[in-house]
Every structure is written in structure tokens, then in C-alpha cells.
Amino acid sequence: MVNIVIFGETGAGKSSVTNLMASQKVARVSPDTQRCTLEWTEYTVTFDDGTPYQVFDTVGLEEPRLQTKEYLTAITNAHNLINALEKRGGINLLLFCIRGGRVTATMKSNYRLFFEFLCEKKVPLVLVVTNLEREDPMEAWYTRNRTHLEKYNIYSVGHACITAATTIDDRHRDKYEESRETLCSVVQAHCNDSMEGWTGGQGWFASLISKLMELVIGRPDQTDVIGILTKRCGMNRKVAQQVAQQIRRNEDQS
């Protein structure tokens, strides 16, 4: 089955986008404010042609940088997410949800976290711009903002300018149907079940949490990192110490 990781800030409409693809309510639309970076919920979505997709609705960053405590929690979530993805055959596609508006530093940090750090630039990424029901045509947003995205080094293999709101009035109902067709088409264009899912191979997890340090404010205590790796991630102490030392070396070199 094709695995899609969908990510973005709170309010970007990730759950609504999942429901739009499914043409029914499979994901509960709720804020991520009580959830932590890299925590996820998994759904199965079936397109009209009968093709199933496994969607990992994943919490991104709410600020451009992580506090130390948030980083330690993200280590556990990263470990669980990577284990789940490896068991299911890896990642086939990234869907980066952003709310129609200005391009921000937090968007850039989320892009780096998922496209560069988690997927090492090896997985196709589709940009999904939401909340565009009052944009006419919706594609106009991308035309205006493409250069701003490129200024932040945010690139994609495709994009979908959409509305996923189910409470819009009748004047915009046709835009909802147009959005579903646009979104499903771009997903099908860039991933299918004949594509092999990408996994980072040996050291994927250690590489991710090491790179994630680039977004952390402060310097986590090495003892705390080792404690998380052994108690929550199940590493033996020797391996955990090696990972923590590698994180420290990478930080010293940056």
C-alpha cells in the first residue's frame, strides 16, 4: 500500500485534507495544540478508483525552533514514526499543507524537518495550499507566491490550491468538488503502488534526531538524551551513548 505522510502547522487543515481525499469523514478535525512534534495518527483513504492509501497525519512545528523539552519528546515520536513507516514499506509521498497566506519561517522549518531531515530529499513532496475558497481562481495564490516559496527554498514536484472546508456556503460548493479532483489527481500523478517506498536504512533514526538538533534552542543534556533513547526507544545503553555522542559531535561541527 502507498504511504503518504501529511504534515504542516496547526490550522493548515491536515485532517480536512485527509477527509477531502477520502470523500468522507475519516479523520477527526481537531487542533494539534495538545499534541507534540512528530506525533501522528494513521488513516486508510480509498480513492474513487478503489486504490487505498495509508495516510500518516503528522504534527509539525508550531514555531521555527524547538525548545529542549520539545526536542526530547520529539525523539520518542520520531522513533515510533520511523518504526511504523519501516514496517509498512517506507514513505512514498509527502503532502506539505500550508494555509493560504504569507510564507513564514515556521513553514521553512517544517519543510526542512520532513523533506530534508526525515526523508533526506529522497521522497517527492506535493505542496497543498488550503483555505482558498475566496480566491478566484484558487490557482492564483500559487502564481502570486511561487517566488516567495522559492526565496525560502521550498520546492515541490507538484501543488494543489484548494479548499477543504465543509462549512462553506453554496457559492463555493463547486470549489470543494474541484479541490478534491485537483488533490487526488496530483497525488496519483506522483505516487502509486508500483513505486518502492523510501526508508532511510540503517541509522535512519539516529540521523534524523541528530539533524533535528539544528532546530533546537539550547543544548539538551547528554544524560537526558541517553535516558530517552534507552527508556522510551528501547536502545541498549551502549548504542544510546554512541547516538548521543554523535549528536554532540554534529552540534560542535555546526
TrEMBL record:
Q: Which residues form the G domain?
A: 4-130
- Any Pfam family from its record, for instance, is MMR_HSR1
Alphabetically, the GO molecular function entries are: GTP binding
CDD domains membership: Ras_like_GTPase
Query: Which Gene3D superfamilies does the record cross-reference, listed alphabetically?
Result: P-loop containing nucleotide triphosphate hydrolases
Record protein name field: G domain-containing protein
Species of provenance = Rhizopogon vesiculosus
